[in-house]
UniProtKB/TrEMBL annotation:
Keywords: Membrane, Transmembrane, Transmembrane helix. GO terms for molecular function: catalytic activity. The chain crosses the membrane at residues 28-49, 56-73. Pfam families: Exo_endo_phos. It comes from the Bacteria. This is Endonuclease/exonuclease/phosphatase domain-containing protein. Residues 92-299 form the Endonuclease/exonuclease/phosphatase domain.
Length: 320
């Protein structure tokens, strides 16, 4: 009992400490930090079971739990009291995942063959019709050769005529994909924050003139993706495959921490109020999240409720 108490308490304490240390120092710290919610839950279960045979050794895990309460509140958000809200600026941030477009799907040639074409159309309609004055998209996709699936033209025609895009062109059908900021209000200046190791991991910014006469700097980022799905099963067996996965995880984590530092340095130098949107590819139990959380308010923590899963798949869902 004593040994388990010390082990759990020490592991939880180290995982909480690891959240404040850059993986650039040692990448294994990121793995330890990611385990924080599991260690917190395991320690809580241990404390509850220990009440059957209470002892002074419970003080260590209880202290670790209290120290790690931030892990709990980073996982679950509770709605606050609803006060009368002042008029605000509605902003949408969304990773469109290329509108779930299959890689072999060429508009409009294959539209009659694709069973999910209606789902794609609803997705496009929702994106083009959402009333938010400012829209930040990651993995944005537009196909200029088809009026229905030309997302850029539809957004501009719908009132979001001011835009800043950083996109690449697919050679197969000349469609484009990347990062995009659309606004109903004038964009005074725009530029690039960073370029990642892939064509869709990057960061852009735009200074937007608000109706109140202020200037808001909007930063839209897509931090480095782990892309574990690209790790092919090695001929060397499961051990080699696991080694490859750890390598990909390590590299993406190091890139994200470096990119987050660049985003924060750029944001801190802004002469205007800053709003950071994007897909950070990081859980709340990461150095990347903690660094951003120090300087900026988390919209979900302030206004959301529940677990706030942003990655929603039938077999995989969590808060990224």
């Amino acid at each position: 009992m004593k040994a388990l108490s010390v082990l759990l308490s020490s592991a939880l304490f180290l995982s909480i400490l690891a959240l404040q240390v850059s993986p650039q120092f040692w990448w294994g710290i990121g793995v330890l930090a990611a385990a924080a919610p599991l260690l917190w839950g395991g320690t809580l279960l241990f404390v509850l079971l220990s009440f059957l045979r209470p002892s002074w050794w419970m003080a260590a895990p209880v202290g670790a739990l209290l120290l790690g309460m931030g892990v709990f509140f980073d996982t679950l958000s509770f709605p606050g009291q609803k006060a009368e809200e002042a008029p605000g600026l509605e902003v949408l941030s969304y990773n469109l995942s290329h509108f779930n477009r299959p890689r072999t799907y060429l508009w409009p040639k294959d539209s009659g063959k694709l069973e999910k074409v209606q789902e794609l159309q609803r997705f496009m309609d929702w994106t083009a019709g959402h009333p938010a004055a400012i829209k930040c998209f990651q993995e944005f996709y537009t196909y200029p050769q088809d009026p229905y699936f030309d997302a850029d033209a539809r957004l501009r025609a719908g009132g979001w005529q001011h835009a800043h895009l950083w996109v690449d062109t697919l050679q197969v059908n000349k469609s484009v994909f990347g990062l995009a900021i659309y606004s109903k209000y004038p964009i005074l200046a725009s530029g690039v924050v960073f370029q990642g190791s892939t064509s869709f991991n990057k960061g852009i910014w735009a200074d937007i003139a608000t109706p109140e006469g202020d200037t808001l700097r909007v930063i839209n980022v897509h931090l480095e993706s782990a892309q574990l799905q690209r790790t092919r099963r090695s001929s060397g067996g499961k051990k080699e495959t696991l080694r490859n996965m750890l390598w990909v995880f390590r590299e993406s984590m190091l890139h994200r921490s470096e990119q987050a530092d660049k985003v924060l340095a750029f944001a801190r130098s802004s002469p205007h109020p800053v709003l950071i949107c994007g897909d950070f590819n990081s859980t709340p139990y990461s150095y990347t999240y903690k660094q951003l959380d120090k300087d900026y308010q988390n919209a979900f923590r302030k206004k959301g409720s529940g677990f706030g899963f942003t990655l929603n798949h039938p077999k995989l869902f969590f808060y990224v």
